Amino acid sequence: FLVGDTRNIIREAAKKSCFICYKPGASITCCETGCDRTFHLPCAPDGECVTQYFGAYRSFCWEHRPQQAVQARPSQDNTCSICLDTVENKISYKTMGCPACQDARFHRHCIQRLALHAGIGFRCPCCLNQDPFTMEMLTMGIRLSKRPPSWQSVQAVGPLGERHGRCDAGTCLCPGGREHVEEEGPWQLQLCSSCAAEGTHQHCSSLGNSTYSWECNTC
C-alpha cells in the first residue's frame, strides 16, 4: 500500500467496532459477500472466527467460516490425539479432525501448537498424512511455521539430551552475553515450559524469582 492508502485504511478501521469486544479499530472484515461483521485479530478465537494464513489471507466470522466434513466414527473415544484430554463428541471450532484417516481428533489449540513446533514436518499425529492434512488445517485457520521442527533445533545445539543454554529474548540485557548463565539471580536461565527449545534470562523477560513457568513466543 501507498502511505495515503494506509492512512485511509486506518481511518476506516477506526470507525468500525469489533462485533466480539465491541471496541473500535476493527480492521478485519468477514470475506463472505454481504457480511459486514468486523473484528480484531486477537479477538478472533473468542468469536470463533477463522483467518487463513495463506493465499489471499481471507478471514471469516463464526457464521461463515469454513467447516470440516469429517464424519464421527462409532469407535471414536472422544480423546485428543495430542494431549489425551477429552474433546467434544462432534467436529466444531474447538474440536478438529484429520480428513485423511477420519479418526484422529484434537483440540484446535493443541494442533496449532503442534503446527508451530513441527514446522515443515507438520502432519497428522495419528496417520502421519501430510499433504491433504496440511491443506485442510490451513483452510481451517491453523498457522504453520516454515522452520525445521523445534526438536531438531534442540538437537542442533549439542549432543542429544544436552539442555538448551542461551538466552533467546529479543533483547538480551546480560553483560556477559546470551551464553552467560548463573544458577541464581537475574541471569538464571528459564527454558520454555512447552518446547524447551528456547530460553530467557529471568531479567531479560522481566520474570520474578518466584516464576516457575515461562513460554516462548512460538508456543
Automatic annotation (TrEMBL):
GO CC term, one of those recorded: nucleus
Domain RING-type positions: 80-127
UniProt cross-references to InterPro entries, sorted A to Z: EPHD, PHD-type_Zinc_Finger, PHD_PHF7/G2E3-like, Znf_FYVE_PHD, Znf_RING, Znf_RING/FYVE/PHD
Molecular function terms, GO-annotated: ligase activity; zinc ion binding
PHD-type domain span: 1-65
Domain of life: Eukaryota
Leader sequence segment: none
Keyword annotations from UniProtKB, A to Z: Ligase, Metal-binding, Zinc, Zinc-finger
Name recorded for this polypeptide: G2E3 ligase
Species annotation: Gymnorhina tibicen
